[in-house]
Amino acid sequence: MYVRDARNRDEAWLLDRIEEMGLDSVAFRSRDYVIAVDESTNERAGFGRYRIHKTDEGEVCELTGIGVVDGWRGQGVGAHVVERLIDLAADEEFETVYSITDSDDYLRQFGFESVDPDERPPVIADRLEQKRRTVGEDVVVVAVDTDAFEMPAALRQRFKEAEKGGTGSTEPEETAEDFGIDADEATYKYDTGN
């Protein structure tokens, strides 16, 4: 498993996953995304975006649109997407990265903390109001200094061992019997009368 920058050919896949998960696609540009990929199958497992807001006071970096595909959840995929986004933000010399989320507990494990309303950049305050209208009132602003980000060792290990349908899978594996086939005899189990 590894995380890479999104490519133009990933655009349709990204837009489909963003829509399926009900995530924010405002000002969508595929080049702002990273994608977690299973190196043995080339299957895309997760994604995320960092969005740069240009303001009169300077630029502000926001993490948004982070998602993990069913069957890959609970295996550190999202954590490594977040880590790659933070690394990219640090490479662009951002000291602080913001996120507006209704899942702040997830981000807190990496060192994200609540942001006092008086300390929010105006663009982040505006995005918060927009997200509250579209997502719900329980969204909050959290931030982390890029040099304070920490990856929990357990998530790093899960990511190394990640496989589709692993410990985070929510769907049971399909068997031949699900399709009416007797696996021992390799014949159809149900007579259709034809």
Automatic annotation (TrEMBL):
Cross-referenced CDD domains: NAT_SF (cd04301)
Gene3D superfamilies: 3.40.630.30
UniProt-listed InterPro entries: Acyl_CoA_acyltransferase, GNAT_dom
Superkingdom of origin: Archaea
Coiled coil: none
Biased composition annotated in UniProt, kind: Acidic residues: 171-185
Stretches assigned to the N-acetyltransferase domain: 1-133
Gene Ontology molecular function terms on file: acyltransferase activity, transferring groups other than amino-acyl groups
Region (Disordered): 160-194
Protein name stated in the entry: N-acetylglutamate synthase, GNAT family
Species of origin: Halolamina pelagica
